[in-house]
Amino acid sequence: MSAPRFEGDDAGTPHEAWLESAALRAAPVLDRQPGALLVVAAHPDDEVLGAFGSIHEAARRGIPVTVVVASDGEGSHPGSPTLSQAALAQQRRTEQEAALAGTGAHILRLGLPDGALRRHRRELVAAIAPLIAALPSDARVIAPWARDGHPDHELVGDAVAAIAREAGRECAWAPIWAWLWGEPGLLDDVALHRLPLDADAREVKARAIAAHRSQIAALSPDPADRAVLSPSMLARFAGDEWLVLAPPARPMPFDERYADEGDPWSTRTAWYERRKRALVLAALPEQHYRLAVEVGCGTAMLTAELATRCDAALGVDASLPALAEARRTIAGRTNAWVEHRAVHDGLPRADVDLIVLSEIGSYVEADALRGILHEARDAGAQVVLCHWRGEGEDLLASAEQVHALAAGTTGMRRVVEHRDAAFLLDVLVPS
Question: Rounded CA gap, 301 and 130, in Å?
Answer without folding.
Answer: 24
